[in-house]
Amino acid sequence: MNLTPKALPLLLLALVLSGFFPPQSESGQYPLWEAAIGLVGFSFPDYRGSDQSRNYVLPFPYFIYRGDFFKVDRERVRGLFFRNPWLELDLSLGGSVPVDSSRNEARKGLPDLAPVAEIGPSLELIFGEKKGAYRTTVTLPFRFAGAIPFPEVYSIGWVFTPRLNVDKYNIGGWSGFNLGMSFGPVFGSADYHDYFYSVQPAQATPSRPAYSAQGGYGGTQLSVGLSKYFKRFWVSLFARWDQLDGAVFADSPLYRKNTSLITGLAFTWIFAESAVMVEADK
Fold first, then answer.
1. Is residue 121 within 8 Å of 94, Cβ to Cβ?
2. CB–CB of 174/143 below 8 Å?
3. What are the structural domain ranges in the chain?
4. pTM
């Protein structure tokens, strides 16, 4: 499967809105909105449990809005449903990259994997924070997933990824130098795991037996991001490590590796911003 222009937005969605970029310190005055454009290079496994990865270099647009009740930032759409000082109910987004099965040894002869988009509510519990210093939260995102073999869209179940998040701002007294970390398990429905790991009897070979995936535990993820913010520019390093030991799909012949690593580097330039300034609330 080639990365057609129609597939690119889903690839960017998988990256930009899946928590890879660490949050900006929101202490002090900021423009009400900012529009930006960036360039990101990253290495991504074909799918979790694959032993093959691809490298991508892509431009991406970016928009931040800091309203009183509705906020859009590099993590999610915030305050969309409910918000108070210790609890938020927001909209969570995510996804995964398309895969050309002819380029993946484990999947040769199987249908290509279309890009996957995920959307659903996310409950965030705020356990501690100090403006400009740190923020500790637990997020509980439950997302419905859909495969998008353009122009079709069809459901492939759900994924639940509870996370402990620790964000440290202005490290070492350096303004705008921030660290974000998150850790937690991954759970998916039978349909979700079926899309990535099942092998139908007609697709079986002597080295790839038939397999029907089940729902349940799908491994654990650790994400780390380090960023530096300037007046009109920011740079971010990020990584996500997946540990898949004990996953319910571990017997799948498509499961080739019990760990995977996503790494990347992003540069972003803010080219337009509101003249109206607001007090950010992190």
1. no
2. no
3. 8-280
4. 0.86
Q: How far apart are CA 177 and CA 182, in angstroms?
A: 17
- Domain 8-280 coded CATH 2.40.230: yes
Q: Would you state the torsion angle of the CA atoms of residues 108, 110, 116, 118, taken in this order, to the nearest 10 degrees?
A: -120
Output the 3-class SS for the chain: CCCCCCCHHHHHHHHHCCCCCCCCCCCEEEECEEEEEEEEEEEEECCCCCCCEEEEEEEEEEEEEECCCCEECCCCEEEEEEEECCEEEEEEEEEECCECHHHCHHHCCCCCECCEEEEEEEEEEEEEEECCCEEEEEEEEEEEEEECCCCCCEEEEEEECCEEEEEECCHHHCCCEEEEEEEEEEEECHHHHHHHHCECHHHCECCECCECCCCEEEEEEEEEEEEEECCCEEEEEEEEEEECCCCCCCCCCCCCCCEEEEEEEEEEEEEEECCCEEEECC
User: What is the torsion angle, in degrees rounded to the nearest 10, for the CA atoms of residue 27, residue 31, residue 36 and residue 38?
Assistant: -20
**1-47 pLDDT per residue, tens:** 444 444 555 555 555 544 455 555 555 677 888 898 888 888 889 99
